[in-house]
Amino acid sequence: MKQQFFTFIFIIFITFGLYAQKNGLIDKIVIDAGHGGDKPGAIGYKAKEKDITLDVALKLGTIIKENLKNVEVLFTRTSDKDVELYKRSQVANKNNADLFISIHCNSSTNHESKGFETFAMGFAKTAQNIAVAKKENADILSEANYQKNYEGFDPNAPENNILFSLYQTAYMENSLKFADMVQKELAKNTTMHDRGVKQANFVVLYQSAMPSVLIEIGFISNRQEEVYLMSEKGQYEIAASIFRAICEYKNSKEVEKITIPPIKHLIPDSIYNVKQKEIANTDSVNKDKPVYRVQILSDPEKIDLTDKRFSVCDSVWCYAQNGVWKYTAGAFEDRNKAWDYQKILKEKGFVDAFVVVFYKGKRITFEEANKLNK
Ligand SMILES: [Zn+2]
């Protein structure tokens, strides 16, 4: 009888601790930019994971501060420094935070791999999920005393660390719920591929006492995706998507509902306006002379010229040929300048870029252009 009573009290205590936490408001959020300092994370063609995660984390923090006045934002880092993984969840626990969001970039030896995925703690069901956890956990190997700080966690075999997933069990349902909201928002607001909600054992999440997710915002090892992840437009679209998921999560938990701003209201106007100005500049070349452009993409479907894939290009233009839409960047009267620009675009991820030439809007051969230029 006595034992039953204590069990009852214990259950009340746990329930109170979990559900009555801070009057049920989601008003303290920890944003964790993956890696940092001498731990760069994944390395892309141009970018390091630690820089992209910090950029996106800071943008997300700014959007929250500007739009949710009653929400406090805490960062695990705001500069390029290394923070040990256990200290990141400590920040969240000490401050009694309501949500922990860790931002990362994926990478793969398969350069075609692409898309975003959100993880909650739990059993990794596939070798692929285990591989992601292994990569993200590897940072602790260079931390002093990692065996002590992580209670014998073996980062080389995350699938063996079953106990680790128990810490987050109490929050698993909410973590998965929030993860799903993040995926849906990213799918809606970016053109990247939705890889879904997943589970695996992440050192950075396991000790946190609140709903926690790790978002792999895209593949830094995929040239096109790296370009997008590095761009202001891409980073804002990702941050704004995560912000909208936070709003949805708040609304699902709180009595008083907030109005969730549309994605464009969350992104500075300049991000889109600059693009339009650049497109308008296309007309500045002499119409009576051949115009050299760099072809970057072709697609049977018409793509909007403000599409995020073009965010790193100047003077985007398109023409139709044999039922296919072809997209070009830049507009030059000087053929050599077009070649220089082709080089730049290749470095920006348009690996198949090549120079084409037009006269009065029609594609012509280089020979024809040479004659016209005489
Ligand atoms: Zn990472």
Helix content: 40-55%
Q: What is the percentage of strand-forming residues?
A: 15-25%
**What does the average pLDDT come to?**
86
CATH architecture classification name of the largest domain: 3-Layer(aba) Sandwich
Question: Rg, please?
Answer: 25 Å
- The strand order across the widest sheet is 2-1-3-6-4-5
Q: Could you describe the largest sheet, including whether it forms a barrel?
A: 6 strands, mixed
Q: Are there runs of 5+ residues with pLDDT below 50, and where?
A: 6-17, 274-281
Distance between the termini: 103 Å
Please tell me what the overall shape is.
elongated
Structural class: alpha/beta
CATH superfamily of the largest domain: Zn-dependent exopeptidases
Q: Which ligands are bound?
A: zinc ion
What does this structure look like?
This protein is of the alpha/beta class. It has two domains: 2-266, Zn-dependent exopeptidases (Aminopeptidase, 3-Layer(aba) Sandwich); 274-373, Alpha-Beta Plaits (2-Layer Sandwich). Helices cover 40% and strands 19% of the residues. It has 13 helices and eleven strands. It has helices spanning 2-19, 49-67, 85-94, 127-137, 146-149, 164-167, 172-189, 203-206, 223-230, 232-253, 269-280, 335-347, 366-373; strands at residues 28-33, 72-75, 99-106, 116-121, 194-200, 212-219, 291-299, 317-321, 324-332, 354-359, 362-364. The chain has a six-stranded mixed β-sheet, with helices on both faces. Strands 8-9-7-10-11 form a five-stranded antiparallel β-sheet. Strand 10 (354-359) and strand 11 form a beta hairpin. Helix 2 packs across helix 10 and helix 7 (172-189) crosses helix 10 (232-253). The longest helix is centred in the middle third of the chain and has 22 residues, at 232-253. The radius of gyration is 25 Å and the shape is elongated. Residues 6-17 and 274-281 have low confidence and may be disordered. Residues 34-35, 41, 49, 104, 136 line the site of zinc ion.
